[in-house]
Amino acid sequence: MQPISIESLDQEGRGVAHVDGKVVFVDGALTGELVTYSPYRKKPAYEFATVDSVLKPSAARSEPRCAFFKVCGGCSFQHLDARAQVAVKQRVLEDDLRHIGKVKADLILSAIHGPAWGYRQRARLSVRYVPKKGGTLVGFHERRRSYVADMTDCEVLPRHVARLLVPLRRTLGALSIRQRLPQIEVAVGDAATVLVLRVLEPLTAEDEVRLRAFAAEHRVHLYLQPRGPDSIYPFEPETEAALYYELPEFDLRIGFSATDFTQVNMDVNRVLVRRAVRLLDPRPGERAADMFSGIGNFALAIARRGARVLGIEGSGALVARAAGNATANGLSARTEFRTQNLFTIDAPALAALGPFDRMLIDPPRDGAVELVKALGEQAPRRIVYVSCNPATLARDAAVLVHVKNYRLSAAGIVNMFPHTSHVESIAVFDRAH
Fold first, then answer.
1. What CATH number has the domain spanning 1-61?
2. pLDDT of 229
3. pLDDT tens track for 15-42
4. 388 is catalytic
5. What is the model's pLDDT at position 1?
6. Homologous superfamily of 87-115+244-431
7. Which CATH number does 122-188+193-236 carry?
8. H or E segment and range at residue 270
9. 86 backbone dihedrals φ, ψ, rounded to 5°
10. How many CA atoms lie within 13 A of 41 on its CB side?
């Protein structure tokens, strides 16, 4: 193949070039580089390729820290300097706001970032018994493939978890059900680490002995999940792990279960909560809403500032967890949590919740379009929107700005997942007078 010049990066971090009228997306190439490449999927108008060699490297190119980077699909950006990663994600956010939402922020917030390595405190590891590769593999999937990467270390997992990959391979490979154990959920708290093993068949007595010995040696809690998420139970030790994280600035300790949704990067989460509350600016005596409130990550911090908070969440289990966290932190008098489906909420249902001075919205990837459409005359003066998908944030911003008479006062990225193309962000909307 003739060398090509990379013009830009797409939203997945692939280099973009044009050859004979066709767009070429090149994995592992960076803006401004001259590369040779090998296509792996061709279509009439575009093709996907991988880098063969870099003839003219970008000044932002960095040597990947992980020995398995080229194989493992867990990261896509280790070849790009960490500061440049942040700039790429900021451009993605601004482009989506401009092209999808037809909006522009009055102020671009400085990026929120934290440690670039060892940050991933929540993860789902795949397990596969592959005799041709020496036994059981434990790790993330390979790039663009369903196979489990043959990896013995990981630079984005906490070091004590990464060091478990090889012992896990040995221990799980010795089990009678090694072909019926497809995944492990990892949950790391401030004081405990839990591994949830998905087991599709019962353990033998010998299996139990091996797993109990593993848990004792490596000082982790092992849970088993024989069926759906509700079937999870502590196996070794047989008592619940003390899973929690602290938000010291707000004097909060927030408990969670091994399968509750929590942010993967607790260092960044602490900064995110601080900024979200500062931007929301709740005042004592005001009434605030935390939409998609989860286990109370934002609601309890808002309440600590003196506001009365109503948290709305679709999961009854998370609502119960949030209420328990409010009680444990002495905030039950200023908080209330309810179960309600915010993906189907309409104007009458939202109005029935009463007026709010301020609102925080933290939805999953699908965004909160029905919620923002439902805002009426009692809409809050300020909304802080925490997003894990810039495209749906931009779509919802269009409704808020062009239909609901809000101004996009500020927006910026949150680098929750360093070395990946995943873009989290935060935006502030103020109601026009």
1. 2.40.50.140
2. 86
3. 999 998 899 999 999 999 999 999 999 9
4. yes
5. 67
6. Vaccinia Virus protein VP39 (3.40.50.150)
7. 2.40.50.1070
8. helix 266-280
9. -60, -40
10. 6
